[in-house]
């Protein structure tokens, strides 16, 4: 009995040791760095100088936020494709990024072959539909009821296949998006703001508008159509949906096609800002931290998450990046997401997970 | 007919618990080891040894590392290449700081650095599960890759920004650097890989391995068995990153011999190693070797094999075809046998056991 | 609390029961707005078989989850071996000698029967990482020593023939047996069994009953079990606690509980 009675003491210690340790580290760090709050000290550069810059040059701040917002919209669009597929088929679709590239490449490739721009868009949609059908037939149907990780890996396979296929068809060189031919606006609007100039690219404004319209359309589609209801049913439970006569295969084709449409629009917007190349594949990975923030199943989450990541990353790079050598955009998004995750493992909009046994 | 366990009775628990309980398996492994140690250096030419066998060994070790994490403990990682990079840079820093210490010792020690970094990035695994964790490991991948370029201390402020592998010797024989012969480098790799595989096999068959698999299969029940989830997951991260780190150090020191290391340890490599583990078989050490052999040899086979068959293929096209083939093969494998080559191997052995009278 | 609880101090019937091993005092557990358990108290004595019964959704499994630290009740306290338990983690509960089985079998599906039961010995194995990596000397001796214990359990449960098969492919009844074996390998003082006989046929149930009684008699293990089969409950248990909608409605010997009007109402329904 006596040795058991002694347990609570180490217990309490064990529970608090992480916090105690962190507090100790913080105190020591503060003591060491406390002296550094003068103009050249590290803490000054990290905690004071960036904010002073923001206040002193609000136009630069506005420009940075705007640029963050725009890249955030594009991250959100890629994340949206992920969410659609994850909700409906439970597949964590790693290939969404490459689908964006593939759609954009197909569009540009068709135009280069002499197809008129808008016809090329329609044909590309046809290609995306064919892709959705193929993926459903060749990948999803044979793999139904496999564990999630297997399906996840299968989308890796799709990614690699599409990379090889796309490069073989269209070549690996970066291409110019046919923005003019699709009547997308060019140039910039210069706003006089806070005593400086904030330059807004018209294409960015168009991207934001088109993204909003598309999201609204998707929401309406989910909410008010028969197929939308079936989609939500499938998202909730495959088995239950099957038992009331919903065809899973049909739903999967529709969802992957929808994700394909989203991919094409993302590809056009992204391509118009830079160019169409396979470098986008790595950028598309940024949609993953967005998903972590927003939760894998929430469309509003994907949008808000995208904006937070976009703005956070641009501001981090602009104001804090130079302190450690710059280029931190490549990983900052993941760390923002990780930070959030430690406090809210279920994402911004997810429900608290109650584990049952 | 020849592959039967009939007549082999185990009279002690230790005999029953052996990794290869069947006599035929033990003979098989002896033959393979003999081939690897004697046959390959005798028969293989320099090209075969340095562009096929050494990469195969390096990838096998990395795949074993990832398999411990993903296959045995069920934690997906997309940051293997970064942990390999940590090993490579640590080995470089160590050997330039302590040129007197044997490079093989330093390669192993650099694995410890990688293990430490792995544990650091493994910490979120207690709160984050599944795909969320995969994203956390992406943070490691991109952050470390960034550090390899932006922290000049790591490459000793070289103007080229690259690791320059110095010459190091073992018993007076150069084993790294330009003058090391492929055979010596191969032997060093082989000894390291065989030894570390033996360790890994011991670990996964013992208490630690059972704890890992318990966490993978049903973490709640594992915790109620008294397994501390954090400990199990962090040891998996540590051991896995150790293997990755040693593989990375081997990659730079015995295979590449320097070069733009930051470029090598990119996310593509992480994915490739993941494919090796999946195609080889999750939770199987022998599968790691199968997967490594398959993925590592595929580009070479396509590049040299297809022209030999009379199919003209330029370098670029070969690369595209490789991508498509790898993608298609991954999907095919997942459909045909989600448990990978290791399971096919098992089925084959089972068939052989009843051959030629399966009924 | 608006429901009156009936506190019957059940006297030991056919076996000599010792002190209170675990006592649950006024615990309440909520998930958001849903109350899973409200203000329940009872105790478990050393060496007894204690049944927790009640209709579906009565909070029985939640109660076991509270006892072994998987859930932490918002109110009330749990005292185990005379020590009040603060927020205990499941692995600490395991270290204190509480083992359990699950309603939906929670075996390690990718592992063999032998390995599953061996995991139950985890807490009793202490060889360091480096010996394990060598798998010789002390680590091997330890492994063999525990293998012997596990083989005894395998003999006891008569599952020798499935020793090396992966448990994922075993029939349900055998899986339940392996799960019991895994819990027994921990040599627990308190064994929590969550519907050990669910989904079994008569023969399997009889086997399982015998195992439970043998464990109780031979090793003196205290057992708390949840079960829906009333016949089994009445035969096996020394005392029974009845829950309904998260509240305790009766507590006492099987005979007392059987005669209790509230219990009869809960099971058969009341005309309003």
Automatic annotation (TrEMBL), chain A:
Which keywords describe this protein according to UniProt?
Answer: Amino-acid transport, Cell membrane, Membrane, Transmembrane, Transmembrane helix, Transport
InterPro entries registered for this protein in UniProt: ABC_transp_permease, BCAA_transport_permease
Membrane-crossing residue ranges in chain numbering? 12-37, 65-86, 91-111, 117-140, 149-170, 205-225, 246-270, 290-311, 318-343
Q: What is its main location?
A: membrane
Membrane topology label: Multi-pass membrane protein
UniProt-recorded Gene Ontology molecular function terms: transmembrane transporter activity
Q: Which GO terms describe its biological process?
A: amino acid transport
Q: Name one Pfam family in it.
A: BPD_transp_2
Its cellular-component GO annotations read: plasma membrane
Question: Localized where?
Answer: Cell membrane
Q: Which domain of life is it from?
A: Bacteria
Q: Which family does it belong to?
A: Belongs to the binding-protein-dependent transport system permease family. LivHM subfamily.
Q: What is this protein called?
A: Amino acid/amide ABC transporter membrane protein 1 (HAAT family)
Its source organism is: Bosea psychrotolerans
Lineage, please? Bacteria, Pseudomonadati, Pseudomonadota, Alphaproteobacteria, Hyphomicrobiales
Automatic annotation (TrEMBL), chain B:
Q: Which UniProt keywords apply?
A: Cell membrane, Membrane, Transmembrane, Transmembrane helix
Which protein are we looking at? Answer: Amino acid/amide ABC transporter membrane protein 2 (HAAT family)
The answer to whether UniProt assigns keyword Transcription to this entry is no
Q: Which InterPro entries match?
A: ABC_transp_permease (IPR001851), LivM-like (IPR043428)
The organism is Bosea psychrotolerans
Record GO terms (molecular function): branched-chain amino acid transmembrane transporter activity
Q: Where in the cell is it found?
A: Cell membrane
Instruction: Enumerate the Pfam families for this protein.
Output: BPD_transp_2
Q: Which domain of life is it from?
A: Bacteria
Membrane-spanning intervals of the chain: 27-43, 49-68, 75-92, 98-123, 130-148, 184-204, 234-257, 269-296, 308-336
Q: How does it sit in the membrane?
A: Multi-pass membrane protein
Cellular component GO terms, alphabetical: plasma membrane
- Look up keyword Transit peptide and say if it applies: no
Automatic annotation (TrEMBL), chain C:
What is the residue range of the signal peptide feature?
Answer: none
Q: Which Pfam families match?
A: ABC_tran, BCA_ABC_TP_C
Q: Name one GO molecular function term.
A: ATP binding
Specify the ABC transporter domain's residue ranges.
22-270
Query: SMART domains per the record?
Result: AAA
Q: Which InterPro entries match?
A: AAA+_ATPase, ABC_AA/LPS_Transport, ABC_transporter-like_ATP-bd, BCA_ABC_TP_C, P-loop_NTPase
**Entry GO CC:** plasma membrane
What keywords were assigned to this record? Answer: ATP-binding, Nucleotide-binding, Transport
| PANTHER family named in the record | ABC TRANSPORTER ATP-BINDING PROTEIN, CONSERVED COMPONENT OF ABC TRANSPORTER FOR NATURAL AMINO ACIDS-RELATED
In Swiss-Prot or TrEMBL terms, this protein is called Amino acid/amide ABC transporter ATP-binding protein 1 (HAAT family)
Which organism does this sequence originate in?
Bosea psychrotolerans
């Amino acid at each position: 009995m006596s040795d058991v009675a002694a347990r609570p003491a180490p217990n309490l210690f064990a529970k608090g040791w992480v916090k105690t340790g962190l507090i100790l580290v913080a105190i020591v760090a503060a003591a060491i760095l406390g002296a550094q709050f003068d103009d050249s000290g590290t803490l000054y550069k990290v905690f004071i100088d960036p904010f002073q810059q923001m206040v002193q040059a609000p136009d630069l701040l506005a420009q940075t936020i705007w640029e963050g917002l725009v890249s955030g919209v594009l991250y959100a669009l890629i994340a949206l494709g992920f969410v659609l597929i994850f909700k409906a088929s439970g597949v964590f679709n790693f290939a969404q990024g490459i689908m964006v590239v593939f759609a954009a490449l197909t569009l540009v490739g068709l135009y280069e072959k002499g197809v008129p721009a808008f016809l090329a868009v329609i044909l590309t949609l046809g290609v995306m539909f064919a892709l959705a059908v193929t993926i459903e037939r060749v990948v999803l149907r044979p793999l139904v009821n496999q564990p999630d990780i297997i399906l996840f890996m299968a989308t890796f396979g799709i990614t690699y296949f599409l990379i090889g296929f796309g490069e073989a068809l269209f070549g690996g060189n970066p291409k110019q998006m046919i923005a003019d031919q699709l009547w997308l606006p060019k140039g910039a609007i210069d706003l006089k703001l806070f005593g400086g100039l904030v330059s807004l690219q018209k294409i960015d404004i168009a991207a934001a508008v088109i993204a909003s319209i598309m999201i609204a359309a998707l929401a309406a589609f989910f909410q008010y159509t028969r197929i939308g209801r079936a989609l939500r049913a499938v998202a909730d439970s495959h088995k239950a949906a099957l038992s009331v006569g919903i065809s899973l295969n049909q739903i999967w084709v529709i969802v992957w096609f929808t994700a394909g449409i989203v991919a094409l629009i993302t590809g056009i917007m992204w391509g118009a800002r830079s160019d169409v190349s396979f470098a986008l594949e790595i950028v598309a990975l940024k949609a993953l931290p967005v998903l972590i923030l927003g939760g894998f199943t929430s469309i509003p989450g994907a949008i808000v998450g995208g904006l937070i990541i976009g703005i956070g990353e641009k501001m981090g790079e602009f104001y804090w990046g130079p302190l450690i050598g710059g280029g931190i955009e490549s990983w900052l998004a993941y760390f923002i997401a990780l930070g959030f995750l430690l406090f809210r493992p279920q994402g911004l909009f997810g429900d608290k997970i109650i584990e049952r046994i | 007919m020849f592959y039967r366990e009939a007549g082999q009775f185990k009279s002690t628990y230790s005999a029953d618990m052996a990794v290869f309980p069947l006599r035929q398996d033990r003979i098989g492994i002896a033959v393979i080891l003999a081939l690897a140690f004697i046959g390959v250096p005798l028969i293989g030419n320099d090209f075969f040894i340095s562009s096929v066998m050494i990469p195969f060994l390096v990838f096998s070790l990395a795949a074993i590392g990832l398999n411990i994490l993903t296959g045995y403990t069920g934690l997906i990682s997309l940051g293997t290449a970064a942990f390999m990079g940590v090993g490579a840079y640590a080995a470089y820093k160590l050997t330039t700081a302590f040129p007197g210490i044997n490079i093989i010792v330093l390669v192993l020690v650099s694995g410890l650095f990688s293990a430490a970094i792995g544990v650091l990035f493994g910490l979120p695994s207690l709160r984050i599960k599944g795909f969320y964790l995969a994203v956390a490991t992406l943070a490691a991948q991109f952050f470390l890759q960034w550090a390899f370029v932006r922290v000049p201390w790591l490459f000793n402020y070289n103007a080229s920004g690259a690791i320059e592998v110095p010459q190091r010797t073992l018993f007076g024989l150069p084993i790294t650097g330009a003058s090391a012969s492929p055979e010596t480098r191969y032997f060093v790799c082989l000894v390291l890989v065989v030894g570390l595989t033996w360790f890994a096999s011991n670990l996964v068959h013992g208490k630690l391995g059972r704890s890992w698999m318990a966490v993978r299969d049903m973490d709640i029940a594992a915790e109620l068995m008294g397994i501390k989830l954090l400990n199990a997951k962090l040891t998996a991260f540590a051991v896995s990153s150790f293997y990755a780190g040693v593989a990375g150090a081997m990659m730079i020191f015995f295979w590449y011999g320097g070069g733009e290391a930051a470029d090598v340890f990119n996310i593509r490599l992480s994915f490739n190693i993941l494919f090796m583990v999946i195609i080889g078989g999750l939770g199987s050490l022998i599968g790691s070797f199968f997967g490594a052999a398959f993925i590592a040899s595929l580009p070479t086979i396509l590049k040299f094999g297809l022209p030999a068959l009379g199919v003209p293929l330029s370098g670029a096209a070969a690369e595209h075809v490789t991508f498509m083939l790898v993608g298609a093969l991954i999907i095919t494998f997942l459909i045909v046998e989600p448990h990978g080559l290791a399971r096919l191997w098992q089925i084959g052995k089972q068939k052989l056991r009843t051959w030629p009278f399966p009924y | 609390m608006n429901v009156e609880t009936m506190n019957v101090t059940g006297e030991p019937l056919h076996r000599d029961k010792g002190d209170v091993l675990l006592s649950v005092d006024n615990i309440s557990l909520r998930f958001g707005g849903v109350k899973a358990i409200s203000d329940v108290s009872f105790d478990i004595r050393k060496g007894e078989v204690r049944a927790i019964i009640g209709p579906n959704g009565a909070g029985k499994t939640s109660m076991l989850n509270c006892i072994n630290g998987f859930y932490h009740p918002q109110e009330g306290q749990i005292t185990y071996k005379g020590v009040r338990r603060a927020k205990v983690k499941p692995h600490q509960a395991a270290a204190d000698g509480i083992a359990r089985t699950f309603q939906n079998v929670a075996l390690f599906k990718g592992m063999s029967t032998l390995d599953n039961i061996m995991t139950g010995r985890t807490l009793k194995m202490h060889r360091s990482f480096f010996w394990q990596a060598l798998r010789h000397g002390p680590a091997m001796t330890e492994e063999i020593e525990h293998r012997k214990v596990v083989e005894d359990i395998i003999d006891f449960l008569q599952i020798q023939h499935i020793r090396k098969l992966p448990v994922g492919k075993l029939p349900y009844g055998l899986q339940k047996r392996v799960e019991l074996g895994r819990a027994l390998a921990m040599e627990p003082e308190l064994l929590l069994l969550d519907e050990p006989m669910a989904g079994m046929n008569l023969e399997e149930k009889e086997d399982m009953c015998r195992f439970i009684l043998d464990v109780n008699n031979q090793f003196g293990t205290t057992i708390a079990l949840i079960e829906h089969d009333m016949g089994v409950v009445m035969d096996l248990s020394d005392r029974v606690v009845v829950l309904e909608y998260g509240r305790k409605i009766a507590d006492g010997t099987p005979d007392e509980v059987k005669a209790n009007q509230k219990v009869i109402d809960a099971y058969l329904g009341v005309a309003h």
